[in-house]
Amino acid sequence: MLRRRQKLIRRMVPADIQPPPRAKRPESLTSREQEILELIWAGFKNKEVGQRLKISVKTVEAHRANMMKKRRVSNTAQLLKTAITGGMIRIRVA
Q1: Which of 42-51, 55-64, 81-90 has the lowest mean pLDDT?
Q2: Which of 6, 8, 16, 33 is the most exposed place for a label (fewest CB within 10 A)?
Q3: Residue 89 sits in which domain range?
C-alpha cells in the first residue's frame, strides 16, 4: 500500500520540483537570551530571572530552551560550558 502511494506521488509531482529549503535556526543568541544567560551564570533561578526582567517564568524557560537548541546541548551545565568556550560569558577572576 505504501509503495503504491509513493509511486502515485512520483507520477503526480515532477522530478525537477524541489521542496523549499528549510529555514536554519540562527546560531547567535538574541540580546534577551544573552541577558538571561548572564543571569543564569550569576546563579539566578528561572523565577528570580523572571522577576528581575519582569517576564514570566514560562518565558524564561522558553528562552533557556531556545538557547539550548541553538548551542545543541541538553542541560544547563553544558550550556554554560559552551557559552564560556564560545566567548559569550567572561569569567572574572577576583
Answers
A1: 81-90
A2: 16
A3: 32-94
